[in-house]
UniProtKB/TrEMBL annotation:
Assigned keywords, A-Z: Coiled coil
Keyword Coiled coil: yes
PANTHER family: PERIPHERAL-TYPE BENZODIAZEPINE RECEPTOR-ASSOCIATED PROTEIN 1, RIM BINDING PROTEIN-RELATED
Biased composition (Low complexity): 517-531, 540-556
The keyword Coiled coil belongs to this UniProt entry's keyword annotation: yes
Name under which the protein is recorded: RIMB1/RIM3A-C-like N-terminal domain-containing protein
Domain of life of the native organism: Eukaryota
Skewed-composition ranges (Basic and acidic residues): 205-222
Ranges in a coiled coil: 7-154, 265-320, 345-449
Any GO molecular function: benzodiazepine receptor binding
Domain called RIMB1/RIM3A-C-like N-terminal: residue spans: 2-122
InterPro entries per the UniProt record, alphabetical: RIMB1/RIM3A-C-like_N, RIMBP1/2/3
């Protein structure tokens, strides 16, 4: 018990020391935790800055797109109102066109992403027959691009038609004013006018000058420049060509005088100069914005590299902190182990001394236990002998029960045979009544003997309990004289109980047989005589068994276990 208690104390100490060690580890490096938190905050801030830079770059690209596609109003004396209306309508058309193009560009980007993902899946699972074909995705991309071009053409046509309608309503149906104000040199080149008009226009020298100016304007503002600007601003948006940007400078079909044509040429040249300046300014702004975007990208890369470097430093610091914590915990564990080993050594020395004293005491106890074991063996041998005697008695009881059952069967047969004659039955009833009286007297005597036997067994139990508690050597029961009532009551008790049962059963059977009325049975006196002889034989056997049980009863006094079991078995019978 002392060893167990000492072990429990040691376990409690170990658990408490482990808890203290964990607390020390947690509170060991607060600076590293603060650094980790600071680095996490920096990472979050850098991510927010990167998102802001991306949004700003996207907004700049959209602004560049709007600036490139913004209309340039013309200045004229007679057509100012029409040009303002045309400019407003054109701005609306361009905004709608830009929104439609952006939506289509987003759809194209989504389709491109899906195509890339599907291509990656195809590369990953080339052996799978269920994978889609790459040709289908290329076809889808081409169809989407064709759809974008078709939308651009429709927007250009709609803007041109609206310009024509507004010019007709503003000028009151005059063809030269609408032709001079309406955009669309690219659309007029598709053979919309009859050849006669072409011939007339080509023969006029004023028209030749206007056309030369228009060609110079187109040379100064080529389609490749607009495409390069659009590609720098938004790579996925395709240009609409000169149909949308150069339609304001379309020359008139019919010129009235050379003065008007020269004025228009001067205005066109002035506007060309303005447009050149605007194009140069826009190019300069685009270059600046590209430089700014590149600088922002470089800054973003630097920030990302710095973030990666800080993450590596954080990992190294965490590893160092963990290693230092492990070293300190190992040192603390070693110190605790040294203290525990010294305590265990002292406790072992004390335990050895205590165990030596215990060994001396145990040797004395063992001697005493050996004596007790020898006595117990003797008692067990006596107990076995008593059990054997009980088994023999039980066998005798079984034999008697079998004989009783046979006698009962014979008696039932005799009763059935004796039902024919009432005289023989009455004589038999009288004999049985006499037997019942004698047996009741015997039963009363046997019950008295049983009570005496129970009292005797109770006294024996008390004596044995006092002997065991005092641990005195038990004396053999054969040396003490056995009283006369004890010798007589051990054997015949069971037989008396059985005979009483037999008498009771006989009385019940005879009473039942006396109540029955004989129907049609004819018996003989010879069978009655034979049944009487058998009953006498059974009685003689029972008397002989009683005498044998009296002789075979043990003379030694029973053990407490035998004294407890005998009355229980008798009561069960």
């Amino acid at each position: 018990m002392k060893l167990l208690s000492a072990l429990e104390d040691l376990r409690h100490r170990c658990s408490s020391l482990a808890e203290e060690n964990s607390l020390l580890r947690r509170s060991c490096f607060p600076e590293t935790e603060e650094k980790v938190k600071h680095l996490k905050r920096k990472n979050a801030e850098l991510a927010v800055i990167a998102k802001r830079l991306e949004e700003r770059a996207r907004k700049l690209q959209e602004a560049n797109l709007k600036v490139v596609s913004a209309p340039v109003p013309l200045k004229g004396s007679s057509l100012e109102q029409c040009k303002k209306a045309f400019a407003r309508q054109r701005a609306k058309d361009l905004t709608e066109q830009a929104s439609a193009l952006l939506a289509k560009d987003k759809q194209i980007e989504a389709l491109q992403k899906e195509c890339r993902e599907l291509q990656a899946k195809l590369i990953a699972g080339k052996g799978d027959p269920r994978c889609l074909n790459v040709v289908e995705f290329d076809r889808l991309l081409r169809e989407s691009q064709k759809e974008v071009l078709r939308l651009q053409r429709q927007i250009a046509l709609n803007s041109f038609k609206e310009c024509l309608r507004s010019s007709k309503s503003g000028s009151g149906g005059s063809v030269p004013s609408t032709a001079a104000a309406c955009p669309g040199p690219a659309l007029n080149t598709r053979s919309k006018h009859p050849p006669a008009a072409k011939g007339v226009c080509s023969g006029d020298p004023a028209h030749k000058k206007v056309r030369q100016a228009d060609e110079a304007q187109n040379e100064l503002r080529p389609e490749s420049l607009s495409r390069s600007l659009l590609l720098h601003v938004e790579p996925s948006v395709l240009p609409l060509g000169p149909a949308l940007e150069g339609h304001e400078n379309f020359p008139p079909k019919n010129a009235v005088t050379d003065q008007e044509s020269s004025q228009q040429i001067q205005q066109l040249e002035f506007e060309l100069k303005k447009k050149r300046k605007k194009c140069e300014n826009l190019e300069h702004e685009v270059r600046k914005k590209h430089k700014r975007c590149k600088e922002l990208e470089i800054q973003l890369q630097e920030v990302q590299s710095e973030n990666a470097r800080l993450a590596e430093e954080n990992l190294q610091l965490n590893e160092k902190a963990g290693w230092a914590g492990q070293v300190e915990s190992e040192n603390a564990d070693l110190k605790l182990q040294v203290v525990l080993v010294t305590k265990e050594r002292d406790s072992v020395i004390e335990r050895n001394q205590g165990l030596q004293t215990k060994l001396e005491n145990l040797e004395q106890v063992l001697k005493h236990m050996r004596d007790v074991a020898e006595r117990r063996q003797l008692l067990e041998a006596e107990h076995k002998e008593a059990l054997l005697v009980l088994q023999e008695k039980q066998e005798e009881v079984r034999r008697l029960q079998q004989a009783q059952a046979e006698a009962k069967r014979e008696h039932e047969g005799a009763v059935q045979l004796l039902e024919s004659t009432l005289d023989c039955m009455q004589a038999r009833v009288k004999d049985l009544e006499d037997q019942c009286r004698s047996q009741t007297e015997q039963f009363s005597l046997l019950s008295q003997e049983l009570q005496q036997f129970r009292l005797q067994t109770g006294k024996i139990d008390l004596l044995t309990s006092t002997l065991v508690t005092s641990e005195l050597p038990l004396a053999l029961c054969s040396s003490t004289p056995q009283p006369h009532w004890e010798k007589d009551s051990s054997g015949p008790a069971l037989l008396a109980h059985q005979s009483a049962k037999k008498v009771h059963n006989d009385e019940n059977n005879e009473s039942e047989s006396s109540q029955l009325v004989p129907e049609a049975a004819v018996g003989s006196p010879v069978s009655a005589a034979s049944s009487q002889n058998q009953a006498k034989k059974v009685e003689s056997q029972s008397s002989s068994s009683k005498s044998e049980s009296m002789q075979n009863s043990p003379k030694s006094c029973p053990t407490p276990e035998v004294g407890m079991r005998v009355p229980m078995e008798i009561s069960s019978f």
